[in-house]
Amino acid sequence: MAASSADMEQSLLSFEKLDRSSPELWPEQIPGVAEFAASFKSPIASSPPKWMADLEKDDLDMLQEFGSLTMANLMEKVRGLQNLAYQLGLDESAREMTRGKFLNILERPKK
Fold first, then answer.
1. Taking a C-beta distance cutoff of 8 angstroms, is the pair 25, 19 a contact?
2. How many of the other CB atoms lie within 10 Å of CB of 74?
3. Is 63 helix (H, G, I), strand (E, B) or coil?
4. Cα–Cα distance measured from residue 71 to residue 75, given in angstroms and rounded to the nearest whole number
5. What pLDDT is stored for residue 37 in this prediction?
6. What family, per the record (predicted)?
7. 3, 15, 51, 87 — which has fewest CB within 10 A?
8. Which among 58, 60, 40 is positioned nearest to 49, based on CA atoms?
9. What's the CA dihedral at 83, 88, 91, 93 to 10 degrees?
10. Beta strands in the chain (DSSP E)
11. Each residue of 50-76: pLDDT tens digit?
């Protein structure tokens, strides 16, 4: 008669209690590491990371907004930022060309 998977799992369980307090049974791999690990405080738990120290509330709000976007929405936002950066570059170039024209920087020297 075939045993069900639940009966099989029950038969594999062990209720043995292991005493892990004895250094003879469970010796430390490297002496002193347990004390060092216990005394070491995680820098993440005690203070925010360095990059977060200079962020203002608006910056954190924007990070949370970006974090809540779906992948498609985030990609659309990135595309919009790229287009905006490109347009700003074009506008800046046009201003510099106009400025150069008014200052006669591009004028050919007269012979």
1. yes
2. 13
3. helix
4. 6
5. 72
6. Belongs to the lin-52 family.
7. 15
8. 60
9. -100
10. none
11. 777 788 889 889 989 999 999 999 999
